Each structure stands twice: as C-alpha cells, then as structure tokens.
C-alpha cells in the first residue's frame, strides 16, 4: 500500500464585493436588486393560495414572493416571504439566494458553495456576541396575552393536517448544564393561540437536548427565531456533529460573530436579527396530533396524524411589519434541498477528506431530494488513497458517509470520476446510465440508520429508523487502470485550441 495523499484544500472565493447581510430585510433588498423578489400587492388567501404560489415559484424559478395582505386573515401588519432559499431561473444565478445568504458572490455554483462551507469547518470557532437589545422587542406579548393566531399562519399543502408557523425558523435549545446550544430547523404546527407541536426526532439534536431536560424532570426551554439573518437557516439545516454550537460554526463561515439577544421569559439567547421571536417550553410528556405535511421527499404522506410533543408559548415578540418566511416543502427544488442538502454535502466532503480519502467533491443533487449523494474522485485515486480496487474504494466511502449524521439520511451514493460535474443533471444522468454496471462492484449495507422520512421506506423500516443502503460503483473497470475513454463531447472531445477557437468565433458563425 502506498501512502495516502490528501488533496490540498481548494481556494475559496468569498468575493471582495460581498456585503454582510445581517438581517432579513437587507436580504430582501439584495434579492430585489438581483431581480429575485416579487412583491405581491393583491390580497392572497392563507388557505392554500400562499402555498400554491410559492410552489409555482420553486418549480419555475420565479422570484421569491413577498405577500403583504391576506384575504382570509387580518394580517396585523405581518408579511410572508415565500421561497427564501429557492432556486432561480435567471442564467448564471441558479443558486443566487443560497450564495447571497452565505455571503458568497450570487453567481457561485453549487460546488463552490459546498467548498466554502467545508473549508469553514477547519476554521476556528467564532462564538456569537450578546447585544443589549433587538428590533423584535418593539412589540412584546407575554403570559395570557400571548396569541399565535394574530400571526398569519398558512395552510401550505392540500392534505396538510394543520397550519405551519415554523418551516424556516431557528429553534434554540440548550443542554441543562449549558455546555451546548443547538440551533436547528424542524417544522412546527399551530395548535391554538398558545401551543405548537412538531417533529422532535430522537436522532436530531433538538430531540437529544429535550431528552436531557426530560431526564431531570423539566420541560425544555426553547426559542424560535423566525425571519433571521439569511445565513442562519443554512447552519440550522446543517447536520453538524452533536455538541457543536451552530452559532460558533456560522461565525467561522461568515468570518464575523452572530449577534444574539437574551430572551424575555426563558434563560436563552436567540438570534438578535429575528423578525419574530417565540419563547416557551417544550413538553415531551404531552402529545397532540400533528401532520401529515408535505415533505422534502416530494409527497404529502398518506398517513394519519402522528402524536407529537407540545411547545407551550410564554412570549411573542416582533418588529412592526414583521416578515414570516415560509418553506413549502415538496418536489425539488425547495429549501430542504438547498439548506439541508447543500450543507450536508459540505459536511460529508469534509468527513471524507478527514478520513484520508482523496475525493474531488461531494454533492447531493438538488433534484434527488436528498436520496442521492454523488462523490467524485480523481483518476489517480489508487495512488492517492492506497486502495487497490474500485469496489474497496466504494465500500470505504460508504463506511465513512453512512457513519456521519449527514450521511445517515442519504440512502444511495454514486461514485464517479471527476470529469463529471455532479451539479449538471444532464451529465449526471448520462454518466450514471453509461458507467454503472448493474451487477459488479457496488457496496451494499444492510439495515443501518436511516431518516424515517425517506420516501419509499416500509413501515417496519420507519419504526426501526433503519434500512439497506448502496454505493453505486460508476468507476471504470479496474482492468482499465487509469485510462479513460475520450468523451465524445465539445468540451472534452477536442483539442483545447479548437474548443477555444469555436467559443471565440461563436458569434462570427452567426449564433446568438
Ligand atoms: C426547510 C427545512 C425543514 C426541515 N424540517 C425538518 C423537520 O420538520 N424535522 C426534522 O427532524 N428535520 C427537519 N429538517 C432537517 C434538519 O434541520 C437537519 O437535519 C438538521 O441537521 C437538524 O439540526 P441538528 O443537526 O442540530 O439536529 C429541515 C431542514 C430544512 C432546511
Ligand atoms: Mn446540531
């Protein structure tokens, strides 16, 4: 075996022009300047119309809709921003919302964004700073006066079991000993004026923290910060390891500390940029029916409601004209795919490199709804990893990917040479179809941890939260060594001089 060689980290271009967007309103203005915001001046129904419009925006790449008034609710000055992290149909700006949110140039492509997040995992933590006051404290309601129904809470999908207040908010939860403060996203459904319910999965960190409170016989204090500075939801969707504070990691990614503020009725700090701040306690020992709801896999599951724990609300604070962001989960591409999938790919890329595997990149195709991960490797991976054959490489990749929190969700991994751009669906389909032998070299894994929300799981697998997984070996036959056939394409199939000449003379030929 040769010594493994680890690829040098790539240069990350943060872009000198990048101006920090430290609240949602600055983000909305940046979207407007880019042509990525559509103000909706007519009243729309909270019942399904907001959801249907937002779905159509995802599916056409239209700008993010900003709703200002509602035909079936007084609104009370609140606004709704749909598709805050959706994709754009503007040429070269597909991931502009994601990139802007993370302080990267709006033209960044998926692999550049993944590289920037992965790179930040090796940077020192930058903890948040606590500031004295925050705009959300303009209006504060506590105790019996708390009334969640004053907020415009939409019914998002036909078939949803209720109205969802939280689809893009940051849930703050701290261990009883104060050693770890977790920020994450998990949906929350409106129960009544003072209660919410939602998914609190055992394998998620909010579930782990809630269990720790339950173990000392107490409900878990929580803050739900809605409409926060645009980078925060992307770190909330990132499956960082347990006991890592998301706020510290986001500071490292942005190169500046995140501002937090003390809550009014509980002992927690929450993002100071919040448009709306909800405080209260999560009771694991109470249960109420929640769901079903349209999910990241692209379906409203044909399941009855599930009994889930109850969030009791002790305070609501908000800015005047507060903006509530909403995600209408479902068929790709929506924010589960951009804000959970992209940071997941970054974490996996980091883990694979840390394991000494010379991979070029890792990408969760947005269109796969987190069911596929593509890992690409350089042609000389044998020399760089010391692994002799492609089946062994695929098994090793599977072992590393499936062992992490991010990879635990992913059921299918596709390993390809790095001549393929995994963000280009046309190339990916071609490469998967033409390079994958149906029978040879795949690494299969029996009954290992899985996200219970994978679309095709059988009920026994959902209950066990475990299923079989596969790494598809799409590398060339080992007998070819490092040789690859010439790709019969414009970019790969001609000498550089011809490619340059054709590009240069394109207009001269008469093409527009
Ligand atoms: C828009 C969006 C909605 C999400 N909804 C849920 C949810 O309802 N339940 C859940 O367990 N995870 C949900 N996730 C995924 C989690 O945010 C993700 O697994 C994250 O890693 C959880 O944080 P943690 O790693 O600190 O536990 C969602 C992610 C996004 C981006
Ligand atoms: Mn976490």
Describe this structure in words.
The protein is an alpha+beta fold and 512 residues long. It folds into two domains: 24-326, Electron Transport, Fmn-binding Protein, Chain A (Pnp Oxidase, Chain A, Roll); 355-480, UbiD C-terminal domain-like (3-Layer(aba) Sandwich). Helix content is 26%, strand content 23%. The chain is built from 14 helices and 21 strands. The strands form four sheets. Strands 5, 6, 7, 8, 9, 10, 11, 14 and 15 form a nine-stranded antiparallel beta sheet that branches. Strands 17-18-19-21-20 form a five-stranded mixed beta sheet, sandwiched between helices. It has a four-stranded mixed beta sheet with strand order 1-2-3-16. It is globular and about 75 Å long. The N and C termini lie far apart (53 Å). The relative contact order is 0.13. Bound molecules: flavin mononucleotide (FMN) and manganese (II) ion. The site of flavin mononucleotide has 22 residues, from strand 8, helix 5 and helix 8.
Write the layout of secondary structure elements.
Elements: H1 24-34, E1 37-40, H2 49-60, E2 64-67, E3 79-82, H3 96-101, H4 110-120, E4 129-131, E5 139-142, E6 164-166, E7 170-174, E8 181-184, E9 188-192, E10 195-198, H5 205-215, E11 220-226, H6 232-236, H7 246-254, E12 259-262, E13 269-271, E14 276-290, E15 306-318, E16 323-326, H8 335-354, E17 361-363, E18 372-377, H9 381-385, H10 390-403, H11 405-409, E19 412-417, H12 425-435, E20 443-449, H13 459-464, E21 466-473, H14 496-504
Parallel strand pairs: 1-2, 3-16, 4-12, 18-19, 19-21
Antiparallel strand pairs: 2-3, 5-15, 6-9, 7-8, 7-11, 9-10, 10-15, 11-14, 12-13, 14-15, 17-18, 20-21
The protein binds flavin mononucleotide and manganese (II) ion (MN).
């Amino acid at each position: 075996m040769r010594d493994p060689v680890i690829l040098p980290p790539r240069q990350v271009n943060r872009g000198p022009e990048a101006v920090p967007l430290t609240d949602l309103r600055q983000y909305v203005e940046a979207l407007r300047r880019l042509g990525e915001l559509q103000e909706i001046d007519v009243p729309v129904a909270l019942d399904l119309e907001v959801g249907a419009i937002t779905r159509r925006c995802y599916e056409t790449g239209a700008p993010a809709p900003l709703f200002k008034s509602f035909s079936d609710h007084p609104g009370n000055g609140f606004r709704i921003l749909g598709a805050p992290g959706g994709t754009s149909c503007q040429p070269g700006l597909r991931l502009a919302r994601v990139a802007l949110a993370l302080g990267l140039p709006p033209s960044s492509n998926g692999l550049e964004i993944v590289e920037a997040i992965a790179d930040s995992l090796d940077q020192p933590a930058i903890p948040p700073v606590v500031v004295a006051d925050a705009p959300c404290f303009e209006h504060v309601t506590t105790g019996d006066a708390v009334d969640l129904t004053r907020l415009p809470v939409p019914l998002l999908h036909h078939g949803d079991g209720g109205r969802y207040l939280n689809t893009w908010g940051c849930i703050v939860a701290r261990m009883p000993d104060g050693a770890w403060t977790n920020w994450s996203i998990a949906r929350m459904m409106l129960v009544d004026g003072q209660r919410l319910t939602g998914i609190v999965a055992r394998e998620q960190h909010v579930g782990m923290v809630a269990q720790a409170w339950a173990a000392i016989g107490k409900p878990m204090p929580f803050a739900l910060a809605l409409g926060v500075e645009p980078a925060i939801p992307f770190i909330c969707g990132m499956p960082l390891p347990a006991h890592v504070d998301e706020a510290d990691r986001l500071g490292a990614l942005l190169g500046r500390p995140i501002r937090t503020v003390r809550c009014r009725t509980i002992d927690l700090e929450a993002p100071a940029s919040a448009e709306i701040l909800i405080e209260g306690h999560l009771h694991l020992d109470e249960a109420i029916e929640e769901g079903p709801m349209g999910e990241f896999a692209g379906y409203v599951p044909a399941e009855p409601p599930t009994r889930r724990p109850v969030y009791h609300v002790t305070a609501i604070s908000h800015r005047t004209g507060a903006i509530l962001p909403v995600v209408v989960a479902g068929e790709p591409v929506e924010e589960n795919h951009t804000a959970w999938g992209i940071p997941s790919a970054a974490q996996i890329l980091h883990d694979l490199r840390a394991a000494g595997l010379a991979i070029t990149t890792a990408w969760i195709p947005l269109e796969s709804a987190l069911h596929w991960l593509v890992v690409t490797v350089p042609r000389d991976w044998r020399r760089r990893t010391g692994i002799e054959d492609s089946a062994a490489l695929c098994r090793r990749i599977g072992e590393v990917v499936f062992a992490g929190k991010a990879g635990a969700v992913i059921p299918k991994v596709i390993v390809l040479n790095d001549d393929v751009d995994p963000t280009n669906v046309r190339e990916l389909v071609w490469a998967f179809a033409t390079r994958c032998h149906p029978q040879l070299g795949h690494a299969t894994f029996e009954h290992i941890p899985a996200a219970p929300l994978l679309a095709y799981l059988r009920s026994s697998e959902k209950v066990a939260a475990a299923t079989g997984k596969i790494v598809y070996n799409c590398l060339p036959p080992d007998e070819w060594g490092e040789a690859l056939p010439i790709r019969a394409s414009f970019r790969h199939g001609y000498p550089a001089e011809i490619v340059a000449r054709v590009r240069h003379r394109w207009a001269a030929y008469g093409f527009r």
